Amino acid sequence: MVIRQSVDSEIEEVLRVEREAFGYPKEAELVGELLADPSAQPLYSLLAWDGDEAAGHILFTKANLEGAEPQPSVYLLAPLAVLPGCQNQGLGGKLIGHGLELLKEAGVELVFVLGHPGYYPRHGFAPAGVHGLDAPYPIPPEHADAWMVQELRPGVIGTVRGTVRCARALDRPEHWRE
Question: How many domains are there within the chain?
Answer without folding.
Answer: 1
